[in-house]
Amino acid sequence: MDSGALSAGSGLPRDATPASHVASREAAHGGAPVTLQSLTKTFATPAGAVHALRDVSLAIPAGSVFGIIGRSGAGKSTLIRCINRLETPTHGRVLVDGHDLGALDEAQLRAARRRIGMIFQHFNLLSSRTVYGNVALPLELQGLSAAQIRRRVEPLLELVGLATLRDRYVAQISGGQKQRVGIARALASEPRVLLSDEATSALDPETTGSILALLSRINRELGLTIVLITHQMPVVQRICDRVAVLDAGHVVEQGTVRDVFAHPQATATRALVGEAVEQGVPAHALQLAAEAGPGAQLWKLPVGADGELGALAELLREPALAASLIQAHVENYQGSAAGSLWLLVRGDAAALQRARLRLAASGLQPVEIAPEAAGDAGAVVQNAESADVA
Length: 390
Hints:
Alpha-Beta Plaits, four-stranded antiparallel beta sheet, disordered N terminus, elongated
């Protein structure tokens, strides 16, 4: 297999570890191959101006899988089209490898776009070409020889699992296989950045899983930075390292997937995450708290780190406190667990206060839910930050 195709133009050996790929790229390019600075995009329509993007600033780390999520109309697709300059921003700058795309002339922009691969939701393949021919097309447009194209395309077909289907036409392959062709074509120009615009939205769950596994492999083996636009929260949970949330053209929240999903701050984020992660108060927990009588409290604990769970174990052994675990909901975010535990706790005021402070010292913020707040997880009575010291 051609080492140049595998290394995506990085010059690294094929047996380099994923960590060395990422470290080498960060050292060479400052850790952010894509930087957006105060990006604004406004469309003029007969009904008036439509503000698709409003002062968006992001720095996408090298070698990461960076998710951008939001409802339909939030500005996700406009943002990704501004990154590869298919849309011209109204204001602001897009920097790729430190180069301002808006300052490039036409020839320089064409060269820069070769370093930015793009995967589309509806594949955008040519039905008159075979699998091999579709992957080879961008290389033909660059003027490469047949031998050069073959050396680039054949390893890519192996990488995406389509080597045996190279001579089939688009109508003869499945939707998942079409998307694999699209991925191979996007990699043909040896990009540093791969943009994915709802690449799994038209696929069934099983096929979606196989495409995500392929993208993860590409990210690991090639050290490629992937920017992934999606409205599918399970996709973000499974593949992304970091995520930004768009709402009405604004970035309302960003951070690691674990932090954003486990502790959503913005209203838009809570609504999106609520589709993938249980956010409401369990009905049976409220019933148990009501039946327990005066002095019983229902606590919700956001947890994730081993140290936090250790503090919880100590709490359950507190002799002056009776605590029962009612429900746990834990998700896996790229190998890091995070979620919520629901506890029914009983004890005198001093014991409850000691418990709150002990948990807070370990990074846990217990949230007390009033039993009468059926279905409303936002009915917070108190937490360790606002509790009076007994």
